[in-house]
């Protein structure tokens, strides 16, 4: 901790998207010197970071060369070359979370094996090498519909996941090493973000509920606190605390859970970094997820995760019919809504469904916050000045 | 407002100290492109701004040349060359607040005349041209002890103010054009920050009380809400609203008041910019003073100033016995206190009494927050790694 107060502590973030941007907004409050590695020199955090390096974080030497400039390295994305990170650890750079943890999480198969080995509740699963392997099991009758296929590597934001309901969906089977899970009858999806520091202190945030648009089958908004029973809340937080401890992980871990129609809780997957389901903590908790990660990487005491008020968070996605220089319609009307906190990531070009920003709505009453969110859904559109495609 | 959503709106701040830094932290949330003018290329906001220009904001051409680069210009300091700002207004740059208002506020004599003309309560006063003019009035018996002398121009942070109790203090009389006020028997000092936008909407923040260290006679901490009567609160907020309206001002105005031993309220002085007495709003109010100023300059609806929790703010001043590369003692112990929000401005060198940062303590109970502040006063010292002088 000593060196933080000389204002000379150099902290590196791999990838410069919105999560890194919000990390830097907080890091600047403590006067840390920030470094970003990203292939895109117009990424969200490019204008805010003290130092920017353009490069591919999937390349070992690029990761290594970037990391050699800093004292502490952390990340906002999973798909990083782990060998580069491991070389840095050997040479004394503090990489948090540890690359071994990232390596395990990068492979959904290893994640599932870890859950099973340590008796964490997760849907039953099998490994498959490729598409033909899956087809063979279906034909033999050892694999029955419906099931969920998850690519072992490279998936995120719903990509790399295929739900196979019947013979008619066979064309959607991914031809890659994968994990195939029993399809759980999902009643709710929730998320817990938990942090752990070097001293072993653990803190988790109040539970967030993902609310789906029944028509589009997309996450419409996230609400905190989740509408679940006290027992379910306790169980999910207990699992989160046990999981981060069992992994002996320092850093921030976001865990997504299913609750099935019987009320049982299953771990879906996890991410060792700040998470979309924690954006609202900037305004609605004493400590935000971003500050919490910085506290963990700096060997600081963790902050209180107490809720200041309920919150709803909606992602601002690029309108499906627009592409080009971004325009936020009705922004000023949204800004007039009490407790609406607008975050624009600074991506200059909108594309269909691209995450361009988010709005967190805080209100002492969650139902009011949900009603305000509905109004914002109606008002705010991310379109393009230039062209309707 | 239209151009904000192209991410191409350029906003300039004159001076790059901690107030500008906190403005930029918020501006980055809306993806505004930020420009700073400051003589010091190691100023607090240098590393965070998109564009930095080193230069003297007391020089007309420097101000003009800086302002020509931006769409909107605002400031965090009063001592700016007003002619430069006026030329910019003539050429279509949006300068907020208007330079005429800054010009009036730069001169404590014009401020007092404005208060008097519009019947705002302020201590009785007279103008003097120089020291000999004051001595003459004392000798003639038309000016009696005790009195307060304020330099008409250039004073800030207590500089440019002299309290003359008796003949023994004559050497402390400033030899400059000044305003001399009747010494009010001060029971309390409070501050109100009020904002107004182009549409004429007005919002003020809950009132802040300055708490003095009785020994050092310095502001020890600021607390919100102030411990005053409901009538006093209403009166101070009413004055603030009337004052910003009467000035026809767009922007943020901080007004410092005295409450005398009879309970009457007097305006002490005002500043047309974010203010030390509003730092806590970052964590303790729905909208911070920084966001409120940005909303006003962007012609946005003003934000809600509702308090989320009581707050105490303490300035981190350089220890009187240290100068050199800064070191914050016991920072990690302070970070362990629930609701302690540490802000380090990033000044590399500490000097006696230099403002190096602040800590805001939020707590549902103001007395608890004050107790935590006391603990932080004991713990946190701003010293130097290198040398005790």
Rg calculated over all Cα atoms of chain A: 21 Å
What is the CA–CA distance across the termini of chain A?
A: 52 Å
- Largest sheet properties of chain A: 9 strands, antiparallel
Q: Looking at the structure, what is the overall shape of chain A?
A: globular
Short characterization:
2 copies of one chain form a homodimer. Chain A is α+β, with helices and mostly antiparallel strands and 389 residues long.
What does this structure look like?
The structure is a homodimer of 389-residue chains. With 389 residues, chain A is α+β, with helices and mostly antiparallel strands. Helices cover 27% and strands 30% of the residues of chain A. In chain A, the strands form four sheets. In chain A, strands 10, 11, 12, 13, 14, 15, 16, 18 and 20 form a nine-stranded antiparallel sheet that branches. A five-stranded parallel sheet of chain A has the order 3-2-1-4-5, with helices on both faces. Chain A has a four-stranded antiparallel sheet with strand order 6-9-7-8. In chain A, a hairpin with a 5-residue loop joins strand 10 (186-196) and strand 11 (202-204). Chain A is globular. Chain A starts with 9 loop residues before the first strand and ends in a 5-residue tail after the last strand. The model of chain A has no long low-confidence stretch (mean pLDDT 93).
Topology, please?
The structure is a homodimer of 389-residue chains.
Chain A: E1 10-14, H1 18-27, E2 33-38, E3 51-54, H2 60-67, E4 72-75, H3 82-90, E5 94-95, H4 99-106, H5 108-117, E6 125-128, H6 131-140, E7 147-151, E8 161-164, E9 178-182, E10 186-196, E11 202-204, E12 208-213, E13 218-224, H7 230-246, E14 251-260, E15 265-271, H8 281-284, H9 289-297, E16 311-317, E17 324-329, H10 331-335, E18 340-344, E19 349-350, E20 355-362, H11 366-379, E21 381-384
Parallel strand pairs in A: 1-2, 1-4, 2-3, 4-5
Antiparallel strand pairs in A: 6-9, 7-8, 7-9, 10-11, 10-12, 10-14, 12-13, 13-16, 14-15, 16-20, 17-19, 17-21, 18-20
Helix pairs in contact in A: 1-9, 2-3, 3-4
